Amino acid sequence: MISGISRRKRRKLKSEINVVPYIDVMLVLLIIFMVTAPLLTLSFEVDLPTSNAKALESRQDPVIVSVRLDGQLSLKLPEAKEPAPMDAATLQAQLGALASQDKGLRVIVAADKAVAYEKVVAAMDVIKAAKIEKVGLATDAH
């Protein structure tokens, strides 16, 4: 019997860290952040700056869609001298016809900085509906 007791091996101490409590804390923090993040709404005034970026060189002049302060849209083709005012449906039809002829058509949206952002986004939605992929925003050179 004494020999049976002496044959037992002693247990080694584990030197590992128990991470289960840390995982629990992380899950609780994750839930807290997921609940509070949508509640944090930040609103502040934005005055868009002028750009120092150089204009991209291309083989052809871009088509310019202008957004006026009252929301009126106008289209200026490269060969035209003056922009032609039009409604959103007509603009979409015109741009769609141009895009079907030239897949690499570039369109630039030009708007005064006093124009509501919503009106600029509406103009970009019309351009997107015409299936034009290359859209830029016009800025003043600094």
What tags apply to this protein structure?
transmembrane; Nucleotidyltransferase, domain 5; alpha/beta; transmembrane helix; 4 helices; five-stranded mixed β-sheet; ExbD; 5 strands; Tol-Pal_TolR; 142 residues; membrane
Report on this structure.
By secondary structure, this protein is α/β, with parallel strands linked by helices. It has a domain at 63-137: 2-Layer Sandwich (Nucleotidyltransferase, domain 5), CATH 3.30.420.270. The protein contains four helices and five strands. The chain has helices at 2-6, 20-36, 88-101, 117-129; strands at residues 63-67, 73-76, 84-86, 106-111, 134-137. A five-stranded mixed beta sheet has the order 3-2-1-4-5. The longest helix is centred in the first third of the chain and has 17 residues, at 20-36.
Give the helix/strand layout.
Blueprint: H1 2-6, H2 20-36, E1 63-67, E2 73-76, E3 84-86, H3 88-101, E4 106-111, H4 117-129, E5 134-137
Parallel strand pairs: 1-4, 4-5
Antiparallel strand pairs: 1-2, 2-3
Helix pairs in contact: 3-4
The CATH C-level class name of the domain at 63-137:
Alpha Beta
Mean pLDDT: 79
Strand order of the biggest β-sheet = 3-2-1-4-5
Helix content: 25-40%
Strand content: 15-25%
**Secondary-structure class:** alpha/beta
| Low-confidence region ranges | 43-49
Number of strands: 5
Compute the gyration radius: what is it? 31 Å
Count the helices. How many?
4
Biggest sheet record: 5 strands, mixed
Anisotropy-based shape: elongated
CATH topology of the domain at 63-137: Nucleotidyltransferase, domain 5
CATH architecture heading of the domain at 63-137:
2-Layer Sandwich
In whole angstroms, how far apart are the ends?
95 Å
Order of helices and strands: HHEEEHEHE
Function: Part of the Tol-Pal system, which plays a role in outer membrane invagination during cell division and is important for maintaining outer membrane integrity.
Organism: Stenotrophomonas daejeonensis
Subunit structure: The Tol-Pal system is composed of five core proteins: the inner membrane proteins TolA, TolQ and TolR, the periplasmic protein TolB and the outer membrane protein Pal. They form a network linking the inner and outer membranes and the peptidoglycan layer.
Subcellular location: Cell inner membrane; Cell membrane
